[in-house]
Amino acid sequence: MCFSTLLWGEGYDTTLFATIWTKPVLLNIKLTLVLLLSSVHLQQQGENIPPPAKYGGRHTVTLIPGDGIGPELLNHVREVFRFTCVPVDFEMVNVNSALETDDDMNNAITAIRRNGVALKGNIETKHTLPASVKSRNNVLRTSLDLYANVMHCQSLPGVQTRHKNIDIMIIRENTEGEYSSLEHESVSGVVESLKIITRNNSIRIADYAFKLARERGRRRVTAVHKANIMKLGDGLFLQCCREVASGYPDITLDSMIVDNTTMQLVSKPQQFDVMVMPNLYGNVVSNVCAGLVGGPGLVPGANYGRDYAVFETATRNTGKSIAEKNIANPTAMLLASCLMLDHLNLNDYASLIRNAVLTTMNETRLHTADLGGQGTTSEVVQSVMRVIQSKGQFTAEL
Amino acid sequence: MVLYRVLSSSPNKPANALQSTLLNMQETIREPMVQDPTQFDVLVMPNLYGDILSDLCAGLIGGLGVTPSGNIGANGVAIFESVHGTAPDIAGKDLANPTALLLSAVMMLRHMGLHGHAKKIESACFDTIRDRKVLTKDLGGNSKCSEFTEAICQRMKDMD
């Protein structure tokens, strides 16, 4: 029996060929079926593939506590899940900046591949480490090809902010751009950094943005770029957005230069609907938007790939200075866990916890320090659990 | 864009205490700049971040119509400019707000060492805006560019 290699490419071009000749005909049929099914799987590029780690009605999710406030916030998430009897079991994998080897990273990646879904805190990247040491968060994203970072920025009713009625979806390319970690110093004192923009990834992220816009009934997608300066790089990105837009006549595409975008965001943020952009601008814009709706303690983020999804806070900061003081705002992490539950199709639990969190936020006396209040993390979590209990849902002991 | 003109110095920081803090972009932009920009004094950064942050800060103080800037080179060579667009729709109609270019000229005077003149023009300009009696359309008023300029000149005459 011999068969030639099974090949498939990244992105949109999938080539599958297998040449099989076998003596036993039965083996031939089985093998053909397997290969055919794999090719069907590969062709379903844009669809959400449900996570496979489900047994007996319970899902297994990888949990990466990270550094700073990550561990305590994720403990609170587990507390709320246990209380609400959510059918999710967490497989904890410790990856933090203290550990020197790559083993912990590999374990984490394997665990996420196995479970399909993860909830994580941010892993600190020390500036003092040599350039060859990549950010672990970045390694996680690129290894799992989590190409879309999605952040939904909404004004929350219980939080006082300068601007109201903000409702922006930010889709940020998550794997390339300025975060390619390709730098060199050919001449001492002169460093060159490579910003990588590829057609494949740009088409992919633009398509994701338009699909999401259509799903959520959004009317306009704004591509953020700096193509007047980076004519080839951002020019390619913009061109890809336009190509994808032509396939979605019901949705308008417009474009805006990144500096003007930040200016518009701080003066008239209500004009934006859905925004799509390369990596670094995504970082900037999502942080600005988080600041607009009340700060990093409030906004959840999600990273989606073709096969995996990882949920975390939108602004990806470790919060070292407020770690273990019981003052961190658990809202962002709790809302991230709700996004995860939606992804697992446990929508009822997601709505229950989400509504409880939003109800709790209406109470100003429970606001944590980042919102200008004096509340503690545990008070907020206790309040969330009490609200859940009051809904009449079957719960564990408080 | 010279950021110290955009962000007024915090009253809590003594002028001679220079604290340099390395902030990564995320920490700078996220909650601080948008939620409480007054904690910043002088920011220095590479080109792209400067482009983004300077426009962001301009948005915080009222837009590009009131934001001055200067480009300083070696040996004191400098070009001062307003960074708003050319506004062809209102060109030649006596409607534009001259504040950005005027304050850029004030920066230029300071660069040249003419601090007295700079202070005078700047105070007159700020007082006119604060007064809210004579404002151009972009600032919510109905006055012409020449009327706004005349009001500033009048204030300077009154100062003497």
TrEMBL record, chain A:
<keyword id="KW-0460">Magnesium</keyword>
<dbReference type="InterPro" id="IPR024084">
    <property type="entry name" value="IsoPropMal-DH-like_dom"/>
</dbReference>
<dbReference type="GO" id="GO:0051287">
    <property type="term" value="F:NAD binding"/>
</dbReference>
<protein>
    <recommendedName>
        <fullName>Isocitrate dehydrogenase [NAD] subunit, mitochondrial</fullName>
    </recommendedName>
</protein>
<dbReference type="GO" id="GO:0016616">
    <property type="term" value="F:oxidoreductase activity, acting on the CH-OH group of donors, NAD or NADP as acceptor"/>
</dbReference>
<keyword id="KW-0809">Transit peptide</keyword>
<keyword id="KW-0464">Manganese</keyword>
<dbReference type="GO" id="GO:0005739">
    <property type="term" value="C:mitochondrion"/>
</dbReference>
<keyword id="KW-0479">Metal-binding</keyword>
<keyword id="KW-0816">Tricarboxylic acid cycle</keyword>
<dbReference type="GO" id="GO:0000287">
    <property type="term" value="F:magnesium ion binding"/>
</dbReference>
<dbReference type="InterPro" id="IPR019818">
    <property type="entry name" value="IsoCit/isopropylmalate_DH_CS"/>
</dbReference>
<dbReference type="GO" id="GO:0006102">
    <property type="term" value="P:isocitrate metabolic process"/>
</dbReference>
<dbReference type="GO" id="GO:0005524">
    <property type="term" value="F:ATP binding"/>
</dbReference>
<keyword id="KW-0067">ATP-binding</keyword>
<dbReference type="GO" id="GO:0006099">
    <property type="term" value="P:tricarboxylic acid cycle"/>
</dbReference>
<dbReference type="InterPro" id="IPR004434">
    <property type="entry name" value="Isocitrate_DH_NAD"/>
</dbReference>
<comment type="function">
    <text>Regulatory subunit which plays a role in the allosteric regulation of the enzyme catalyzing the decarboxylation of isocitrate (ICT) into alpha-ketoglutarate. The heterodimer composed of the alpha (IDH3A) and beta (IDH3B) subunits and the heterodimer composed of the alpha (IDH3A) and gamma (IDH3G) subunits, have considerable basal activity but the full activity of the heterotetramer (containing two subunits of IDH3A, one of IDH3B and one of IDH3G) requires the assembly and cooperative function of both heterodimers.</text>
</comment>
<keyword id="KW-0547">Nucleotide-binding</keyword>
<dbReference type="Pfam" id="PF00180">
    <property type="entry name" value="Iso_dh"/>
</dbReference>
<comment type="subunit">
    <text>Heterooligomer of subunits alpha (IDH3A), beta (IDH3B), and gamma (IDH3G) in the apparent ratio of 2:1:1. The heterodimer containing one IDH3A and one IDH3B subunit and the heterodimer containing one IDH3A and one IDH3G subunit assemble into a heterotetramer (which contains two subunits of IDH3A, one of IDH3B and one of IDH3G) and further into the heterooctamer.</text>
</comment>
<feature type="domain" description="Isopropylmalate dehydrogenase-like">
    <location>
        <begin position="60"/>
        <end position="384"/>
    </location>
</feature>
UniProtKB/TrEMBL annotation, chain B:
<protein>
    <recommendedName>
        <fullName>Isocitrate dehydrogenase [NAD] subunit alpha, mitochondrial</fullName>
        <ecNumber>1.1.1.41</ecNumber>
    </recommendedName>
</protein>
<dbReference type="InterPro" id="IPR019818">
    <property type="entry name" value="IsoCit/isopropylmalate_DH_CS"/>
</dbReference>
<dbReference type="GO" id="GO:0000287">
    <property type="term" value="F:magnesium ion binding"/>
</dbReference>
<feature type="domain" description="Isopropylmalate dehydrogenase-like">
    <location>
        <begin position="2"/>
        <end position="152"/>
    </location>
</feature>
<comment type="function">
    <text>Catalytic subunit of the enzyme which catalyzes the decarboxylation of isocitrate (ICT) into alpha-ketoglutarate. The heterodimer composed of the alpha (IDH3A) and beta (IDH3B) subunits and the heterodimer composed of the alpha (IDH3A) and gamma (IDH3G) subunits, have considerable basal activity but the full activity of the heterotetramer (containing two subunits of IDH3A, one of IDH3B and one of IDH3G) requires the assembly and cooperative function of both heterodimers.</text>
</comment>
<comment type="similarity">
    <text>Belongs to the isocitrate and isopropylmalate dehydrogenases family.</text>
</comment>
<dbReference type="GO" id="GO:0005739">
    <property type="term" value="C:mitochondrion"/>
</dbReference>
<keyword id="KW-0560">Oxidoreductase</keyword>
<dbReference type="InterPro" id="IPR024084">
    <property type="entry name" value="IsoPropMal-DH-like_dom"/>
</dbReference>
<dbReference type="GO" id="GO:0004449">
    <property type="term" value="F:isocitrate dehydrogenase (NAD+) activity"/>
</dbReference>
<dbReference type="GO" id="GO:0051287">
    <property type="term" value="F:NAD binding"/>
</dbReference>
<dbReference type="Pfam" id="PF00180">
    <property type="entry name" value="Iso_dh"/>
</dbReference>
<comment type="subunit">
    <text>Heterooligomer of subunits alpha (IDH3A), beta (IDH3B), and gamma (IDH3G) in the apparent ratio of 2:1:1. The heterodimer containing one IDH3A and one IDH3B subunit and the heterodimer containing one IDH3A and one IDH3G subunit assemble into a heterotetramer (which contains two subunits of IDH3A, one of IDH3B and one of IDH3G) and further into the heterooctamer.</text>
</comment>
<keyword id="KW-0816">Tricarboxylic acid cycle</keyword>
<dbReference type="GO" id="GO:0006102">
    <property type="term" value="P:isocitrate metabolic process"/>
</dbReference>
<dbReference type="GO" id="GO:0006099">
    <property type="term" value="P:tricarboxylic acid cycle"/>
</dbReference>
